[in-house]
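Ticket reopened. Same input as before:
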Amino acid sequence: MPQVDRVAHTGRLPAESDGENPAGDNADWGAPELLAMLDAAGAGIWGLDLRGRCAFINAAACRMLGYAREECIGRDMHEKVHGRCANGSVSPREECPVLRVLQTGTGIRVDGHVVWRNDGTPLPVDLFVQPIAVNGLLKGLAVCLFDITKQRQAEADLERSNKELEQFTYVASHDLQEPLRMVSSYTQLLARRYQGQLDDAANEFIAYAVDGANRMQRLIADLLAYSRLGTRAKGFAPADCTAVLDQALASLKGAIEESGAAVTHDPLPTVTADNSQLLQLFQNLIDNAIKFRVEERPRIHVSAEQKGSEWVLSFRDNGIGIDPQYAERIFVIFQRLHTREEYPGTGIGLAICKKIVDRRGGRIWVESQPGMGSTFYFTIPMGGDGYEQRGVRQAS
Amino acid sequence: MSNVASGRPVEILLVEDNPGDVGLTREALSDSKLLNHMSVVGDGVEAMAFLRREGKYANASRPDLVLLDLNLPKKDGREVLAEIKADEQLRRIPVVVLTTSSAEQDILKIYDLHANCYITKPVDLDQFTAVVRAIEDFWFAIVKLPPG
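Engineering reply: fixed in the latest deploy. New output:
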């Protein structure tokens, strides 16, 4: 409950004509004003003296913990709010990361920590602890905490919804296949059994029915592959892009030889990624470049550039290109820009690419003009700073 | 074909609840060069009764091969498989799991239960026929089965 106290007020908005004060020398702003500011902060803040006793606590912290200010000042805060671990077991003083800051003098951040409210319920928080030194002398420490209950709730909701989705895709991939097989098989059986007795129209109808069933099966298989990107994901580890490219080229040997494609590359880095998913990403991009080719021999060039704290990889081709108005749409599952007669496929390839890049915490996009070839770009954050480090759990 | 005593048709037990699939399997086996006799049961409970020659199956012949679907009424294919492989009288009968599922968790679970092999039913009729023939060829012409 936000406590908004009625105070004497000016009754007007500050006007421009009030002028500026670039020196910042608000001579009348001293300790009381600064304390009031700390008290007004939305995050919970308290200060501990060198013995770990509460020297200051702001209104937000009192509200979050369910204590009155008087119940905290002068008290041992470790005992009060921090004496138990998340599982309820006793958390010894010696191992307390907050108190250790008094020992080390180095500030820390603890994400996903638990403190305990007055009513005995746990409060999930992110904690920032900084030593307070005045004139080089350690006076105590400042603890700043953010309530992450809502974030936790959202994560739990997300996890549940992901589980449901996985279950759904399993059921869909499994239970939808059976009736499909019946349609396809019995239509074919019909054609086989009554061979020579059916006219051309009947045979054509049968061919459409079988084709439809086969297509449906491919869609289901693709949907399953897409959902497995999440469920079968492995962790991130160093992956040599040159080796991954070689592997991709080896597995696309048939298509490359058939089309006479020439694939060249600049020096490529070692990145941190899920190796098998990176391979799939490379494969899909090269496969597309070959598939959507013009008459002339496909030329594909792979390069990499470091920009800030990420790698930008690009796959440039001399293919048919893409109208920029469809640049986003092509990454949506089962979206296609051509008829099946022009180019086969269900429209899963780039959706899979996008999901792989998203999972890695990167971005993927295309720059292209019709008839001018396309360049697909994607980014990979450097180091292991993907989802995993930010604590999003990976299903195994 | 050296596995099966001459003159006796090979005995196949098909455990399958979908009449459509029963029809397709029958179709595939019908013009087989191998003399075969296929019995069909529609759920897991019936399958175990057949194998143990209980009740109306007292005179059932012991199958040379079991073709087992996974999703069955009453007792599913996984339970049937586990019971067969836990039974000293039955565990030597080769069990071929022939199912719609291509889910990894199903495949692993089934091999953990000592299935002799796991096959995903193809959508295409010709491929389905080829698979059934291949099963027959492999188990009755190539493999040396335990003397029974």
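Confidence is low (pLDDT under 50) at residues 385-396 of chain A. Chain A touches chain B through 20 residues (CB under 8 Å). Please confirm and we'll close it.
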